[in-house]
């Protein structure tokens, strides 16, 4: 994982920490947090960061409220803290 990937993972965690339990964020929010000007270019890396955090059991990636694998999900996804 490169520096941008680590920064995106940190941004996902930081943004989720600011939200109440059960609330989601969009990967684009993390990308914007890391680079407000070039965030669109970071979207694949932001989704990959969400995937790594999901694999580690820290978050869940959802689509339409259902947990999905971000690697195979098409279209918009959301990220939330893993439900216990």
UniProtKB/TrEMBL annotation:
InterPro entries: DUF3253 (IPR021660), WH-like_DNA-bd_sf (IPR036388), WH_DNA-bd_sf (IPR036390). Coiled coil: none annotated. This is DUF3253 domain-containing protein.
């Amino acid at each position: 994982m490169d520096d941008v990937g680590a920064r995106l993972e940190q941004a996902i965690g930081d943004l989720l920490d600011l939200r109440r339990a059960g609330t989601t964020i969009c990967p684009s929010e993390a990308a914007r947090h890391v680079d407000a000007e070039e965030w669109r270019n970071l979207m694949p890396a932001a989704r990959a960061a969400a995937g790594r955090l999901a694999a580690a059991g820290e978050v869940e990636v959802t689509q339409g409220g259902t947990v999905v694998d971000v690697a195979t999900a098409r279209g918009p996804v959301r990220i939330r803290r893993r439900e216990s």
